[in-house]
Design goal:
Layout: H1 3-11, E1 15-17, H2 26-29, H3 32-39, H4 41-48, E2 54-58, H5 62-67, E3 72-77, E4 84-91, E5 94-101, E6 108-115, H6 120-132, H7 137-146, E7 155-158, E8 163-167, H8 173-184, E9 191-196, H9 205-216, E10 223-227, E11 240-244, H10 247-256, E12 263-267
Parallel strand pairs: 1-2, 2-3, 3-4, 8-12, 9-10, 9-12, 10-11
Antiparallel strand pairs: 4-5, 5-6, 7-8
Helix pairs in contact: 6-7, 8-9
């Protein structure tokens, strides 16, 4: 708390963009409401500066829409009242997005290299920023289509043996939920979720890890790999469950017992170093 207040005083922004608000770092912020208050320190600065700043706003996000009241909002979202209006075309496995400007008959399509329908709102935010700063629509489409993630966020990697969904830069209950939902809808005759524990959840940790486990055991996995000390002991009649204290231990096991022909989700908090597993899969 207070970090964003400090940063805006340093950089004095004219514009602000909050992509989303999730259940992250609850130990430091005390609660989900604490996360909202801290992120929206950015909105507070823009509201109080002279002249007032502007906000790029996902109008579909009710929490952010409430917090942005009283500010000039440059909107994007899934509803027809936004300036940039988007829709999900497909995600099999890469996200394909359709979009248009309010009042315009021109329709645009973007074929991304991103995994996960949850990236739709991120794509729309980039479009909205581009539109405001008068980037031509063709250039916006070309730039987003050319972007290939390489930072363990929403990456698809093909190895000699398996297909990996590497989303291991970080994890919290909100991002775990949408990653598992997306993985559930993906094709694959052998599907394996390798989940690292979620850190910095404080008093909510036990309940939130249990929620993720319950979800993971209902999405048709062949195997579930759990890394870290915060997962409960669990047995499932529907899939094999493996437990390891560290990603290093898990990597050693799967190097000795290779997987072949699997579609594998790698997801976990940065501190669990789940990306180490990608090298042996």
């Amino acid at each position: 708390p207070g970090d964003i207040n400090e940063l805006v005083e340093i950089c004095q922004p004219d514009y602000g963009l909050i992509t989303n608000v999730g259940k992250a770092h609850l130990q430091g912020f005390g609660s989900f409401e604490g996360v909202i208050r801290t992120k929206c320190e950015l909105y507070g600065f823009l509201r109080n500066r002279s002249p007032k700043g502007k906000v790029f706003l996902n109008q579909t996000n009710a929490i952010l829409a409430r917090q942005a009241e009283g500010l000039e909002c440059l909107t994007y979202g899934l509803d027809e009242e936004s300036t940039v209006i988007g829709r999900l075309i497909e995600c099999s496995p890469f996200l394909k997005v359709g979009w248009h400007l309010k009042g315009s008959t021109s329709q645009w399509t973007i074929q991304t290299h991103l995994i996960g329908a949850y990236n739709l709102e991120n794509v729309l935010s980039a479009i909205r920023v581009g539109i405001h700063f008068q980037v031509p629509e063709e250039a916006i489409v070309a730039a987003i289509e050319a972007y290939v993630p390489s930072n363990s966020r929403s990456e698809l990697r093909k190895t000699a043996r398996n297909t990996l969904i590497v989303d291991a830069y970080n994890a919290n209950p909100s991002s775990m939920k949408v990653s598992l939902e997306n993985f559930a809808g993906m094709d694959g005759s052998c599907k394996v979720a390798m989940l690292g524990e979620m850190k910095e959840l404080g008093a909510e940790s036990e309940a939130e890890h249990r929620n993720v486990l319950e979800q993971a055991l209902t999405i048709g996995l062949n195997s579930l790999v759990l890394v870290g000390k915060n997962w409960e002991e669990v047995k499932s009649p529907s899939c094999e469950v493996y437990r390891f204290e560290t990603s290093g231990e898990a990597a050693a096991y799967f190097q000795a017992h290779p997987l072949d022909g699997a579609t594998i989700l790698l997801k976990g908090s940065n501190g669990t170093k789940m990306w180490l597993l990608a090298d042996v899969l």
